[in-house]
Write a structure and sequence with these properties.
With 716 residues, this protein is mainly alpha-helical. Helices cover 45% and strands 4% of the residues. Among the domains are: 22-117, no CATH class; 157-200 and 420-487, no CATH class; 247-278 and 286-414, no CATH class; 615-715, no CATH class. It has 29 helices and four strands. The strands form two sheets. It has a two-stranded antiparallel sheet. It has a two-stranded antiparallel ribbon with strand order 3-4. The two termini are 27 Å apart.
């Protein structure tokens, strides 16, 4: 098998290299420069005046008067001379010389004209797209080149569960499954998509993604970690905005500059709370200006990460080590947020519960200087004031009304058609949510260290579609989920997996574990406990004793919610920065201290221990057993097992699975018939009318297993 794989891979590489004989700067040259040269000749330091990040520096004379690269003339290029030099004092790099093949690559690149194109993510969309393409045509074209093809379309039960989890974060009910499965009309799938997109739960699911980037929490952080009683109002704004399909350009503008809009509404002021999610230090003796500076830097970095996919923070102390972003670029971007004030007592009217007090962003002009080594105590005043401006490597921000640029100009620039990055980042994120992996290998970094996507044409096709759809998130999602590429089965086959083991070509759908909040939601929904109220203040579901007391101040009390609030969706769980809910953290929910573009997906024994023994999950197993036993349509074990499987994984059990569950039931019945006190303890308050606790406890043993199936907590 290994030999066959090697031969197959070699053939692919050979055919690919034959079609791409010329040296490609992004693919072949930049990695060599980044890995071996920019440490000394890059953004952190530029020895001899040579900065290999900066194109102009490479093609002009250095401090020695010599030109590093002369297009088409390797013999006159100082860089080529130095990497070939035999003298250790003259050779570059001095300690670890380049390999022969790397030297050959650089030499050939110069000989071919030393083309230095824009990085793929900085190119305009028009440079990479064709109007006639579709998702499937682009994917199939790449698959064909590797002699692969789409996997078959998944069955209807798989499709409805996939769609429901992707769009709502909730499993489909048995009636919904049966209705879709029996609907033979041509538009059955499309109508299902429309139904889910119009559900109020759609906003909850997709708002959760956005909250990760916004570093949402219900407390300030640091030692005091004071609660934020009105934080949830912005969360509700996000949910409502997504449900109403607010265009992404408006969604962007209101969050970054709602206060600067003409006749701004209370909701537009509230929207600026995107940047009120920063940590806030209220400890005694804190330097107020230092803390404000930290929050301002965080806002700058978060904006660059969420909308541009750039690691702007790397240029805070010096020029970016890899990307064409100077330290001046950083502080020009920082200046947008430095010219901002936070009002502690802004009274905002117009909300359904009356007048409230919230903190909002306001425009307030300040002087901005570059900080020496990023230290706010060392402003470099001799270089003059820094005015708000975007990174020089991107299209310029247009100044409106001959005034100094402000956050409103920044927001409109981010979603301007001429700025390719924001749109690429936005559609890549949507694709990631629907496939478990993005079209780019480095989802959070579109800078020069990122490799070009295999499907760059697809990324840009989606970006252009997004703009043409007037920035409608729902329309773009529908466009993606209606494709055959999305509807593929996740079934793996030997040959395709040998050729494309990481599924970069999307020859199948991806199988991946649900997010932490969704795992809890699955348990609650399957058991019948979930309460479907949308929005509202954060709630306090049960957590292990002693966790809340671990907060730094030690004064936080977790008062477990009663009634419906105990069974709200996971996204409404109160998030204390210094003592977060372990049920969420165990399943890789972010800590909310920094922006998160991509969650970790770990698999640990602690997760299994949590879902088997934790109070929240055990209670769900109890309620699930009661739900099954109380279902009058199920008259025997086999019918109940079938109903349980449909609720958990949207399919009927196999004969072998049924057999194993019946064996477990028999064993449990035998055990609890003797150990009646344990049965009562297992059942707790979930006794079933006309059914013994021994029988209920036996079924709880079954439901615990079914809820913990790998298939239950994974999306197929």
């Amino acid at each position: 098998m290994k030999v066959a794989t090697a031969i197959c891979s070699a053939l692919i590489v050979f055919s690919w290299e034959k079609a791409n004989a010329e040296i490609d700067f992004t693919r072949d040259v930049r990695p060599i420069l980044n890995d071996h040269c920019t440490k000394c000749h890059g953004g952190i330091r530029a020895k001899a005046g040579l900065n290999l990040i900066n194109k102009e520096s490479v093609f002009s004379a250095s401090e020695s008067g010599l030109i590093p690269i002369v297009s088409g003339k390797p013999e006159k290029s100082e860089l080529i001379r130095r990497i070939n030099h035999t003298d250790k004092e003259e050779r570059m790099p001095p300690k670890n010389p380049l390999k022969k093949e790397q030297i050959t690559t650089l030499n050939q690149w110069v000989k071919e004209g030393a083309l230095w194109p824009k990085h793929w993510s900085f190119k305009s969309l028009k440079e990479t797209t064709e109007k006639k393409q579709t998702i499937d045509s682009i994917v199939k074209e790449n698959l064909k080149a590797s002699k692969l093809h789409h996997s078959p379309i998944a069955n209807k039960r798989t499709l409805i569960r996939r769609l429901s989890l992707d769009l709502l974060g909730l499993p489909p009910g048995p009636e919904e499954i049966l209705s879709f499965e029996s609907d033979e009309s041509d538009d059955a799938y499309e109508r299902l998509v429309e139904k889910l997109l119009n559900s109020l739960h759609f906003g909850e699911r997709w708002a959760r993604h956005w909250l990760d980037g916004a570093r949402y929490a219900d407390s300030d952080g640091y030692e005091k970690d004071n609660n934020r009683p009105n934080a949830w109002r912005w969360r509700k704004w996000v949910i409502d905005s997504i449900n109403s399909d607010m265009p992404f350009d408006q969604f962007t503008t209101e969050q970054l500059a709602g206060d600067l809009l003409p006749n701004a509404t209370p909701e537009q002021y509230l929207a600026t709370a995107f940047h009120r999610q920063t940590l806030y230090n209220r400890e005694g003796g804190v330097d107020a200006e230092e803390d404000r500076t930290k929050r301002t830097i965080d806002r700058s970095n978060t904006t660059a990460s969420v909308w541009l996919g750039l690691t702007l923070e790397c240029a805070q102390c010096h020029d970016h080590p890899y990307d064409p972003i100077s330290q001046r670029d950083f502080y020009q971007f920082y200046a947008f947020f430095n010219n901002t004030d936070e009002s502690e007592t802004e009274v905002t009217k117009g909300f359904e519960d009356g007048t409230i007090k919230v903190r909002v962003l306001r425009q307030k002009d300040r002087k901005t200087y570059i900080f020496r080594r990023g230290d706010f105590l060392q402003p470099i005043k001799e270089e003059g004031k820094i005015l708000p401006l975007g990174p020089g490597s991107l299209p310029p921000i247009q100044i409106s009304n001959n005034k100094k640029l402000n956050r409103l100009d920044l927001a409109r620039w981010l979603v301007n058609k001429k700025n390719p990055l924001s749109t690429r980042v936005a559609v890549n994120d949507i694709w990631y949510r629907l496939f478990g992996k993005g079209l780019t290998e480095q989802k959070a970094d579109f800078g020069t260290r990122s490799t070009p996507p295999v499907h760059l044409a697809l990324l840009d096709h989606l970006a252009e579609k997004f703009i043409a759809m007037n920035w409608s998130r729902k329309k773009l999602i529908k466009y993606v989920v209606m494709s055959d590429t999305y509807k593929q089965s996740t079934n793996r086959k030997k040959r395709p997996d040998q050729i494309d083991p990481d599924n970069k070509l999307f020859h199948r759908q991806n199988r991946f574990r649900a997010d932490g909040e969704i795992i809890r939601d699955l348990f609650l929904s399957i058991s019948g406990q979930l309460k479907h109220k949308v929005g509202g203040p954060s709630v306090f579901p049960p957590i292990p004793k002693g966790v809340a007391e671990q907060s730094f101040a030690g004064s936080f009390k977790w008062k477990t919610s009663n009634g419906d609030d105990r069974y709200r969706r996971g996204m409404y769980t109160f998030f204390k920065r210094t003592a977060p809910d372990p049920n969420l953290i165990t399943f890789d929910c972010p800590n909310a201290n920094v922006t998160i573009a991509k969650r970790n997906k770990s698999n640990t024994p602690i997760m299994a221990l949590a879902t088997l023994g934790n109070e929240v999950f055990h209670e769900a197993a109890q309620a699930f057993a009661k739900r099954i036993l109380s279902d009058k349509s199920c008259n025997d074990d086999q019918e109940r097992i079938k109903s349980s499987f449909v609720l958990c994984v949207a399919r009927n059990p196999s004969p072998q699975e049924t057999h194993e569950i019946i064996k477990l039931l028999q064993k449990s019945r035998s055990y609890y018939s003797v150990n009646t006190e344990e049965a009562k303890k297992m059942v707790g308050s979930y006794s079933c009318e006309m059914i013994s606790d021994n029988e209920t406890a036996s079924w709880i043993a079954v439901t615990r297993i079914l809820l913990n199936l790998d298939e239950t907590i994974n999306r197929e």
